[in-house]
Amino acid sequence: MQPFEFSRPADLAQAIAAAHAPDARPIAGGTELLNLMREGIYHPQRIFDLNGLGELARIDVKPDGLAIGALARLSDIAIHEAVVRDFPAITQALLESASPQIRNMATIGGNLMQRTRCGYFRNGDIDAKCNKRATGSGCAAVDAGQVRDFAIFGASEACIATHPSDVAVALAALDARVHLRSAAAARTVPVVDFIRLPGTTPERDTDLRDDELIVAVEVPAAAAASSSVFLKLRDRASYEFALLSASAALTLDHGRISTARLALGGLAHRPWRFTGVEQALTGIAPDDAQIGTIIANELGKVPARPGSEIKLELAARLALRAVRAAAGLV
Question: Which residues of 66-101 are buried (b: 16+ CB within 10 A; e: fewer)?
Answer without folding.
Answer: bbbbbbbbbbbbbebeebeebbbbbbbbbbbbbeee
